[in-house]
Amino acid sequence: MTTSRTRTASTRAVATIASSLLALGALGACSTDTTASSDGSVAVGDTDAFPVTIEHAFGETVIDEAPTSVATVSWANQDAVIALGVVPVAMPFSTYGGDENGYLPWTLDALEALGDERPTLYSDTDGIPFDELELAGPDLILGTYSGMSDDEYSQLSKIAPTIAYPEVAWGTDWTTQLDVAGQALGLDDEAAALQTEIEDGIATAVESAPEIEGKTFAYLAFSSTDPSVVSYYTPTDSRVRFVESLGLVIAPSIVELSKDSAEFYGEVSAELADTIDADIVFAYVDSPEHLAAVEADPLLSAIPAIASGAIVVLDDPTFILSTSAPSPLSIPWAVREYVPLIQEAATHVE
Amino acid sequence: MTQTTTSGQPVATPRGTRPAGPRRATLVAGLLLGLAAGLLVALVSVGVGARQVPLDQAWAALTAYVPGDIAHEAVRSRVPRTVLGLLVGASLGLAGALMQGLTRNPIADPGILGVNAGASMFVVLGIVVLGVTSPAAQVWFAFAGAAVAAVAVYWVASLGRGGPTPVKLALAGACITAALTSVITALLIMNTRAWDTFRFWQVGSVAGRSLDIVGTVLPYLVLGMLVALASGRVLNALSLGDDLARGLGQNVGRARGLAAVGVVLLCGGATAAAGPVAFVGLTVPHVARAITGPDYRWILPYSGLLGAVLVVLADVLGRIVAHPGQLQVGIVTAFIGAPVFIALVRRRKLAEL
C-alpha cells in the first residue's frame, strides 16, 4: 500500500463529498428561518423545533433555543456538526491521525468546503480543558461519541447544556451521531437526508465491487514486541461493523472466539494461528518491516490469509481512526479508501 | 545479629536465640531439589501451551524438526521463553537478595530502588528521540537506564549525614521513580507510536522474545550471577552494620561497590530482556531466608533457583488460565507476589534485617 497514492485519491473523493455537503448546508440555510441571537451570531437550525429534549447516559438535557455556538468533546463529534454545515466554536486537536495543525483530513476538507472558517482547537491529552471550553462560550456541548465520566458531564453541564453518549461509552455509531446532532441543532431533516446520501454512497461503492461480497474476514492487530499472540476485534467493534457494512462476513473462528466476550477485542495465542480461517485479514502492523516479520514468522504465517497474501494492511493512524472512531465524515472517506484495498486483497484469496 | 569471623563462618545465632538454620547437608540437598524443580518446570513449559501437542510430537519437534509443521513450530516457540524465564527469574531472585543484603532493606527490589523506572525511561527516550523500536536495540537502552538510575539513587541516598541508609535508599528510589514516571508519561502522551511499542514492554513478559535477545543479555547476566554468588560473605559481614564489618576487616566501600555492580548487571539485563517483572526480587529472597536462615552464602543460590522456578511457573500459568490467549508473566508474578508481600509486611520482624 502506498499512502501517497491513496491520499491523492482520497483528497478528490472527499472534495466531492464536501461539495455535496456544502450544497446541503446551503439548502438547509434556505429552508429554515435564521434568527439572530443577542450576540449577533446566527442559529442555522429550525428555531420552531425548540425546546428540544435529548436523552443520554446521564439523563435528559433540554436545549431551550436553537444553539448558535457548538463545542464538541472527544473524537468524531465535530464531524457530525460540520457534516450538517455548522462550524463548531471549539473542538479537540487531533493528535492521533491528524495533521500537524490537528485536523483529520476528512474534517479539514469539509471545513474548507464550508468557507474555511476555523474553530478553536484545544488539547485534551491531559483531560478535557474546562476553562478553555468555557472561554469559547458555547451554548451547546456535544459528546455523543465519547466515554465521558459522570463527573466530566457535570462540569461540562455548568458551562452549557451537554449531551453525553446514549448508552455505551465509545459505542455510538455514525448514524446516531448524525441523528443526535440533527435534533440538537434543529436540523433533523438535513440529518436524515445526509444519512440517506451516505448510505447510498456506501451501497454504490459495494455494488461496484461485487468480488468482495460474502468474503469472510478477520480484523487482527499484530504486536511487533510480542509475536506470540494475535489480537482480534470482536463482532461488537466499530471497525468490524464497518467492514461488515461493505458486504463481507465475519470469519466463523472469530465469532466462536468472541462468543462469551463483551469486550471489543481479545487475544489468541500464535500457536493457534492456523485456526483463524478468514479469506481476508485486516492487519494492524507498525510498519512495512513489521508486516514482513509477520509474514516470515513460523507461527503467524500459518494464518491462511497471511500465507495467501489476502491482507488489507493498516499501518496508518489516519486510516485506523477513520473506522475505529467512525463519524459521518470519516465513513464516506473510509469507504473510498478501503474498498480498493479490499478488492486488491480479494485477488489473493485462495 | 549474626556474628561472623573474617572467613564468614557464622559463629552465633541472630539475637542469640534463633537457630542458625538447617545443617549443611540439608541445605545442599535442598539446592539439588531446587535444580530438579527448575528442570521439571522447564520441561512443562516446553510441553504446555495454547496448542495441545502430544508428547511424542513435542519430542519430535526438538529431535526431528520439520520446518513449517505448526505443531513443531509451536513447541519450538516455547524454548526461548523458557530459557529467558529461567535466566530472568534467577537474575531477579539474586538481584533482590543482593539489594536487600546490600542496603539492609527488607523491601529492596528493582522496582522500589528505581532501576525499573530508569530502564523504562531510557527505552522511551530511545523510541521517542531516536525511533528505536526493535527489541534487540531496546535492550541496550534499558541496560544503560538501569545503571544510571541505580547510580543516581545511590548518589542521592548518600547525600547528607549518615550515608546511604536503608530508609534514605528507599526514599530516593521512590522519588526518582516518581520523577521518571512523570517524564515517561509526558513523553508517551505526545507520541502514540511510542506508546504502542512501550505499553507491552511496560509489563514484564518473556513471550515472543527471540534467542537473539537472550544472547545479547546473557554475558551480563552470567557475570552478574557470578558476582552475586561470590558476595555471600560480604553481605554476611555487612549485615552486622558498617562499623562491625570494618572491624572484621572488610573494606565496606569496595564490598558495596562490587555488589552494586552485580545488582546493575542483573537488574539491567533482566529488565532489558523481559521488561519490569514485579515482585520476584522482592519476595523470593524472603522465602529463601525462611528456608536457609540468615547466611547469605545460602540465601543467594536459593534465591536464584526459586526465582527461576517462580518466573517459568508464572509464564506457564499465564498460558493456561488465559487460554486461548495468555497473560504476561509480570501480571502473574504480581498476582502471586502481592499476597506474599502483604503477608511479609504484616510480619513485624521484616523491618529488622
Automatic annotation (TrEMBL), chain A:
Residues 1-28 form the signal peptide. The keyword Signal applies. It is found in: Cell envelope. Residues 69-346 form the Fe/B12 periplasmic-binding domain. One of its GO terms (cellular component) is outer membrane-bounded periplasmic space. GO terms for biological process: iron coordination entity transport. Keywords: Signal, Transport. InterPro entries: ABC_transptr_periplasmic_BD, Bact_iron-sidero_bind. Belongs to the bacterial solute-binding protein 8 family. This is Iron complex transport system substrate-binding protein.
TrEMBL record, chain B:
The keyword Transmembrane applies. Residues 12-22 have a biased composition (Low complexity). The chain crosses the membrane at residues 27-50, 82-99, 111-132, 139-157, 169-190, 211-235, 255-287, 299-321, 327-345. It holds the Pfam family FecCD. One of its GO terms (cellular component) is plasma membrane. Keywords: Cell membrane, Membrane, Transmembrane, Transmembrane helix, Transport. It is found in: Cell membrane. SUPFAM superfamilies: ABC transporter involved in vitamin B12 uptake, BtuC. Residues 1-22 are annotated as: Disordered. Residues 1-10 have a biased composition (Polar residues). It is a multi-pass membrane protein. Belongs to the binding-protein-dependent transport system permease family. FecCD subfamily. This is Iron complex transport system permease protein.
